[in-house]
């Protein structure tokens, strides 16, 4: 591959010319201790770092940025670290999903407005991965992704604990009166033992894995635990590789294609990945100018086996997955379901990247003839409750609930649900269908992870641990249960969920991919005529921008003005 000329580098426009403005750039670089030899004729690498004291998933990324810089220097580049908005899943309210597009915009504009020739994207917490990649795809400079990596396994009384999944499990037992406060406190102290993302196959590991499948990371990067020494090596190697990518002029839209996203969709099912992947892949593909319909997910669901025996759909955790061979080993098993000719940031194809991968534990990474589930781990539903679609993670639900009819218990808001869910007078039984509305992109706002509605306390005490639950919200990828999510259009804008009334019978039929309410078209028309919209809560600022431009779940919840690949002029240097 031919090497670019140094004067063709984008940063040369800032540093190279013999003019007044470039004098200012060079003199201010000198004020920071840099000489011309540090940057002249070298690729300037922006390190977009989402580290923050309020983000435990990224608490090690300040150190990892130094590893990246070392690799950039070694390869003859000039690293420039740029802090970006941190999306701390556990602390940020109402939800990090409200700010995914904010970080995507910031990433794109950081790269556009500064002298960057290429970038290293550093993140891992749930919405961070799609946000960084969305911005980088839109800007379309050479880009490589360094995933934060999962944390170590949790432990309590000889039990292995997994993020989210065991929180929900033991909280249900606590509410049922089976776990003491002391035991609950011990679980709290033992479940999160290091820096890094959730160590279950939640949204974080789903999305970092998909970044690797799409070709944005070095082979095996997504599986390395955050505090493993190999993680620092991977960061340094990523720094070296991005410099080479700049000289090769290898950009995201040079290697992203329809088949790249087909591979990512197949990987979601093989991994038992998060339902959130549906929304994020839709948005990421849109930034690359690639249209994905919801039906494409269902097409792959029907034929792709679940191979990763990872919680919440299986037994093990990400540390076990790494020791078993990690993502490359799983992809090699899944190879007959993939297009191995897709290019990646290595300059090689996906097939070449995984050709030497081996599986070291066939219970963690199953073979094609011994899957956890033959197909259908995630299903796309339609019907008069979800004309534009809804999603359910069937592999994480009790099988008998996948075809079910029951009386709807309707909560009009998150506050309404919290106020009534444990009321002994609530007329609910195990066959009831719990429904939460006004929790979608505009309704909450931000589409929080409220979709795993709690089981009423009186049913928990009776031994019930799963029920059919329906909402226009999302659910944590670490959660489990018969939860129908992402109902579109959402209730806040008048979707059919807004017309459902308490006592209506709701029918879920996952094998038939149907979600319906037994209400006649005539009754629905009368209810629609009487429906009144709720007022928005943001009169100004980013919230107002969000409410005016956010799209619905079935198209990825991107802003309507950010989709597509229309060229934006480079900034004038003056």
Features:
574 residues; alpha/beta; Glucose Oxidase, domain 1; 3 domains; eight-stranded mixed β-sheet; 14 strands
Strand arrangement in the largest pleated sheet = 7-8-12-11-10-9-13-14
What does the radius of gyration come to?
Answer: 24 Å
Mean pLDDT, to the nearest integer, reads 96
Major sheet: size, sense and barrel closure? 8 strands, mixed
Q: How many DSSP H or I helices?
A: 21
End-to-end Cα distance: 34 Å
Number of domains: 3
Structural class based on helices, strands and sheet pairing: alpha/beta
Amount of beta strand? 5-15%
- Rough outline: globular
Flag low-confidence runs.
Answer: none
Q: Helical proportion? A: 25-40%
Strand element count: 14
Give a quick precis of the structure.
With 574 residues, this protein is α/β, with parallel strands linked by helices. It has helices at residues 12-15, 20-31, 36-39, 61-74, 100-113, 128-139, 165-175, 181-190, 203-214, 229-248, 252-255, 258-271, 276-287, 294-301, 318-323, 326-334, 350-354, 414-420, 457-460, 521-530, 541-549, and strands spanning 44-49, 78-83, 118-123, 143-147, 154-156, 159-161, 379-383, 386-392, 403-411, 433-436, 469-471, 483-488, 505-509, 514-517.
How would you describe this structure to a colleague?
The protein has 574 residues and is of the alpha/beta class. It has 3 domains: 43-152 and 194-354, no CATH class; 155-190, no CATH class; 379-530, Glucose Oxidase, domain 1 (3-Layer(bba) Sandwich). It is built from 21 helices and 14 strands. The chain has helices at 12-15, 20-31, 36-39, 61-74, 100-113, 128-139, 165-175, 181-190, 203-214, 229-248, 252-255, 258-271, 276-287, 294-301, 318-323, 326-334, 350-354, 414-420, 457-460, 521-530, 541-549, and strands spanning 44-49, 78-83, 118-123, 143-147, 154-156, 159-161, 379-383, 386-392, 403-411, 433-436, 469-471, 483-488, 505-509, 514-517. The strands form 3 sheets. An 8-stranded mixed β-sheet has the order 7-8-12-11-10-9-13-14. Strands 2-1-3-4 form a 4-stranded parallel β-sheet, sandwiched between helices. A two-stranded antiparallel sheet has the order 5-6. Strand 5 (154-156) and strand 6 (159-161) form a beta hairpin. The chain is globular, with a radius of gyration of 24 Å. The model has no long low-confidence stretch (mean pLDDT 96).
């Amino acid at each position: 591959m031919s090497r670019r000329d140094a004067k063709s580098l984008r940063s040369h426009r800032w540093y190279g010319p013999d003019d007044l403005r470039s004098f200012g750039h060079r003199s201010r670089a000198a004020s920071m201790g840099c000489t011309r030899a540090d940057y002249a004729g070298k690729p300037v690498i922006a390190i977009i770092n989402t580290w923050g004291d309020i983000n435990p998933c990224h608490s090690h990324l300040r150190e990892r940025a130094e590893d990246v810089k070392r690799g950039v220097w070694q390869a003859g580049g000039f690293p420039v670290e740029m802090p970006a908005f941190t999306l701390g899943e556990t602390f940020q309210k109402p939800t990090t999903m409200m700010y995914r597009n904010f970080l995507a915009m910031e990433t794109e504009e950081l790269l556009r407005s500064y002298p960057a020739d290429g970038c290293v994207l550093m993140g891992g917490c749930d919405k961070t991965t799609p946000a960084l990649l969305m911005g980088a795809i839109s800007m379309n400079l050479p880009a490589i992704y360094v995933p934060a990596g999962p944390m170590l396994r949790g432990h309590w009384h000889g039990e292995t604990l997994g993020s989210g999944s065991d929180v929900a499990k033991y909280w249900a037992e606590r509410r049922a009166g089976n776990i003491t406060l002391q035991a609950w406190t011990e679980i709290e102290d033992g479940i999160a033992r290091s820096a890094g993302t959730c160590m279950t196959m939640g949204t974080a590991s789903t999305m970092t894995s998909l970044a690797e499948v799409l070709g944005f990371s070095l082979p095996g990067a997504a599986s390395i635990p955050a505090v493993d020494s190999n993680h620092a090596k991977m960061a340094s190697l990523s720094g070296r590789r991005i410099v080479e990518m700049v000289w090769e002029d290898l950009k995201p839209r040079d290697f992203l294609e329809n088949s790249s996203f087909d591979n990512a969709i197949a990987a979601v099912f093989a991994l038992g990945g998060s339902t959130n992947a549906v929304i994020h892949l839709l948005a990421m593909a849109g930034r690359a100018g690639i249209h994905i319909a919801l039906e494409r997910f269902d097409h792959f669901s029907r034929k792709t086996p679940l191979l990763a025996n990872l919680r919440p759909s299986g037994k093990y955790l990400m540390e076990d997955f790494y020791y078993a061979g990690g993502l490359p080993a799983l992809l090699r098993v899944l190879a007959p379901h993939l297009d191995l000719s897709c290019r990646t940031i290595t300059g090689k194809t996906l097939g070449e990247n995984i050709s030497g991968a081996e599986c070291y534990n066939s219970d963690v990474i199953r073979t094609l003839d011994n899957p956890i589930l033959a197909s259908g781990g995630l299903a796309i539903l339609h019907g008069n409750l979800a004309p534009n679609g809804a999603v359910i993670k069937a592999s994480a639900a009790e099988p008998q609930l996948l075809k079910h009819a029951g009386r709807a218990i309707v909560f009009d808001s998150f506050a309404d649900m919290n106020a009534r869910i444990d009321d002994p007078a609530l007329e609910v039984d195990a066959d009831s269908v719990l429904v939460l509305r006004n929790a979608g992109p505009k309704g909450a706002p931000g589409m929080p992870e409220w979709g795993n509605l709690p089981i009423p306390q009186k049913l928990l005490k009776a031994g019930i641990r799963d029920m059919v639950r329906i909402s226009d919200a999302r659910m944590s990828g670490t959660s489990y249960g018969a939860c129908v999510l992402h109902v579109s259009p959402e209730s806040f804008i008048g979707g059919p969920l807004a017309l459902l009334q308490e006592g209506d019978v709701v029918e879920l039929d996952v094998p038939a991919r149907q979600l319906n309410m037994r209400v006649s078209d005539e009754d629905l028309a009368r209810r629609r005529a009487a429906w009144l919209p709720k007022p928005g809560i943001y009169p100004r600022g980013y919230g107002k921008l969000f409410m005016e431009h956010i799209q619905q779940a079935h198209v990825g919840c991107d802003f309507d003005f950010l989709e597509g690949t229309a060229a934006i002029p480079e900034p004038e240097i003056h």
